[in-house]
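Progress report, Aim 2. The chain analyzed during this reporting quarter is listed below.
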Amino acid sequence: MSFAGDILDAHAAGRRAAQQGALRSTCPHDPDSSDPRTRNLFVSWMRGYASVVPTPVDYSG
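Predicted structure tokens for the chain:
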């Protein structure tokens, strides 16, 4: 599959994980990888997850 297809798949997988109640830490892609492709898959997965479960922001500071 193409890299664009992999990005779309990672995004969809992140959405599914959030819908199923999985934790963010279950992302299968390493954000600290030396491979830029893996880091991009991590970002796409996280964006998919965040589209269902947004990251809470504390403005009380």
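The helical segments are 3-19, 36-52. The CA atoms of residues 14 and 49 lie 4 Å apart. These observations will guide the mutagenesis work planned for the next reporting period.
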